[in-house]
From TrEMBL:
Transmembrane residue ranges: 12-38
PROSITE patterns: GMC_OXRED_1 (PS00623), GMC_OXRED_2 (PS00624)
Protein family (similarity comment): Belongs to the GMC oxidoreductase family.
Name used for this protein in its record: Glucose dehydrogenase [acceptor]
Biological source species: Camponotus floridanus (Florida carpenter ant)
Length: 630
């Protein structure tokens, strides 16, 4: 009991700081978790924050997120190799474990709190015309902040990568790595050749569902789409969401890949360690170590074999450019000596969607904050791991459909829907409006009139945007956020596909099965779109440009490609061109974005990248000089 009291007290302090908004159920939640799951809260079960560090390691992995945690864990399987994992953020906490609280993790100390640059073409309903781009600054990275949706993408995505000259990245090869990670606990998928049950990463449905998601699946069938495993043989269809959760709790990559290996002697983890630069020997053009700041002190550690950048599609290009690897014109403008001229920071892609589409209903079957904040609900979650708090960030179902622009001759849908039994109005403006960054005018005009009323939403998501953006340095200060130009809708086809998506969403909402709920679209116009007829293509385009919603999938900023591709940053073995001993293994390397949520593909990239390293190095022996200097 003394141990539990200590855990409750420390966790409560962190939770109050984290939540900011002061959810009254937080003390009850943490106390319950501590009492009923004290074994999970035992600090011995968490990755050890290592002091002191060795001066040299065989491999240094920068970033402990969706890919980096996988890479570090897998490399430590070789007992003769010493691995250091550097993470800029802290460890997870009790609140991050709760699936339904995903939105409350944004804009906290666990989030890099990035924003896009204003372009005048998107994010017009957001303050300053800038979209929030949350990224995980925590061990586990964005797998700690995300909505946990497990979507692999389409087989044609990976066959396309291979056709671009990336040997070994076709669908048949990457399927092996998806399955290597997976511990799928859905009984109906146990015998599927597309799934596995022996991996570190648990995948299952939320144990709690509303009647609306059942109606959503039935509506899809009514429209001619099958209810299917979208991670299986075919992608087109409707499905109840699969998520990276385990017994009702979030299963981040830190929990899946790092906790089981925390006692291995050859893996060291250093949290709150902000990497500022890769050290490159100018004579040999080899990455020999990294500089980082920990506890306010600049430190350096050397890599005998390789430095692996797994800092994500924003931070990896930032670190490369700070190290002199990037577009020479830009680096010279910033005042950074150019070591290697590569198109780092180009090719930025994101699955942009349309937020704010609300359908009102007459039955109390959805998530409304005033209804669900109750002690019994909280205790049901902490005792049984069930109830509304297990919802995957609120996303209960997804669908992959074809607009009129899709190629119907193959299974390659161009649009995804996220279905949620809630809307922007459902929390009375406490948090959702903040994570969108909506202006007061937009929220007060459109959503405040339906505060706490029962509503649900469909989010149309563009699967393969044609628009490309950039990541650039603001200056040479490694602690300043980079400039993110998402460049949404620079290609008009992206808007055209999403407009068709809105019209399909409305057809879904008008299916016979939704009549029982009295479902109807919320018709108050956005202030900036009043001059258009509600429901017209022009109105929907205006709405899309105003409430442009990132689906948190930035990729592509250190593009993988063959030596003949002048825009490539890494080769098909993920080695940075022109620099030995340096790889990028994360979402940055995607030449084109995968069709769907990107967390599962990034974990796959981590798995395959670790195997590539093993293949390249196991032919030589490993050194064992472990002298400590800190």
């Amino acid at each position: 009991m003394v141990f539990s009291t200590i855990i409750v007290t420390s966790a409560l302090k962190g939770a109050i700081s984290l939540m900011g908004t002061g959810l009254w159920l937080v003390p009850l939640l943490i106390a319950g978790l501590s009492y009923y799951h004290y074994d999970q809260l035992d600090p011995e079960s968490r990755p050890i924050d290592r002091y002191p560090l060795y001066s040299n390691y065989d491999f240094i992995v920068v970033g402990g997120g969706s890919a980096g945690a996988v890479v570090a864990s897998r490399l430590s399987e070789i007992p003769d190799w010493n691995v250091l994992l550097l993470e800029a953020g802290p460890d997870e906490n009790e609140i991050t474990d709760v699936p339904s609280l995903a939105a409350y993790l944004q804009l906290t100390k666990l989030d890099w709190k990035y924003k896009t640059e204003p372009t005048g073409k998107a994010c017009l309903a957001m303050k300053g015309g800038r979209c929030n781009w949350p990224r995980g600054k925590v061990l586990g990275g964005s797998s700690v902040l995300n909505y946990m949706l497990y979507v692999r993408g389409n087989r044609y995505d990976y066959d396309h990568w291979e056709s671009l000259g990336n040997s070994g990245w076709g669908y048949k090869q990457v399927l092996y790595y998806f399955k290597k990670s997976e511990d799928n606990r859905n009984p109906y998928l146990q015998k599927s050749p597309y799934h596995a049950t022996n991996g570190y990463l648990t995948v299952q449905e939320s144990p709690w569902k509303t009647p609306l998601v059942v109606a959503f699946i039935q509506a899809g069938v009514e429209m001619g789409y099958e209810n299917r495993d979208i991670n299986g043989e075919r992608q087109t269809g409707f499905m109840i969401s699969q998520g990276t959760i385990r017994r009702g709790n979030r299963c981040s990559t830190a929990k899946a890949f790092l906790r089981p290996v925390r006692l291995r002697r050859n893996i060291h983890t250093a949290i709150n360690s902000h990497v500022t630069k890769i050290i490159i020997d100018p004579l040999t053009m080899k990455a020999i170590g990294v500089e980082f700041v920990r506890d306010g002190r600049k430190q350096m550690v050397r890599a005998r074999k390789e430095v692996i950048l797994s800092a994500g599609a924003i931070n990896s290009p930032q670190i490369l450019m700070l190290s002199g690897i990037g577009p020479k014109e830009h680096l010279r403008h910033i005042g950074i000596p150019v070591i290697e001229d590569l198109r780092v920071g180009d090719n930025l892609q994101d699955d942009v969607g349309m937020g704010g589409l609300a359908f009102l209903i007459d039955k109390p079957v959805v998530i409304v904050q005033d209804r669900f904040q109750s002690a019994p609900m909280t205790m049901h979650y902490v005792v049984n791991g069930r109830g509304p708090m297990t919802a995957l960030g609120g996303v209960e179902g997804y669908a992959f459909v074809n607009t009129k622009y899709a190629n119907y001759s193959i299974d390659y849908p161009d649009l995804q829907f996220h279905m949620a039994p809630a809307s922007i109005n459902s929390d009375a403006g406490v948090q959702v409006r903040k994570i969108f960054g909506l202006t007061d005018e937009v929220y007060n005009t459109v959503y405040r009139p339906i505060t706490n009323k029962d509503a649900w939403t469909l989010i149309p998501v563009l699967l393969r945007p044609k628009s490309r953006g950039t990541i650039r340095l603001k200056n040479s200060n490694p602690f300043h956020s980079p400039l993110i130009n998402a460049n949404y809708f620079s290609d008009p086809m992206d808007i055209a596909v999403l407009v068709e998506g809105v019209k399909i969403a409305i057809k879904i909402s008008e299916a016979k099965v939704f009549k029982q709920f009295g479902s109807r679209i919320h018709r108050i116009k956005l202030p900036g779109c009043k001059h258009f007829k509600f429901g017209s293509d022009a109105y929907w385009e205006c709405h899309i440009r105003h409430i442009s919603e990132t689906i948190y999938h930035p990729v592509g900023t250190a593009k993988m490609g063959p030596p003949t591709d002048p825009t490539a940053v890494v080769d098909p073995r993920l080695r940075v061109y022109g620099i030995t001993g340096l790889r990028v293994i994360d979402a940055s390397i995607m030449p084109t974005i995968s069709s769907g949520n990107t967390n599962a593909p990034v974990i796959m990239i981590g798995e395959k990248g670790a195997d590539l390293i093993k293949q390249d190095w196991l032919r030589s022996s490993s050194g064992n000089n472990h002298e400590s200097v800190y």
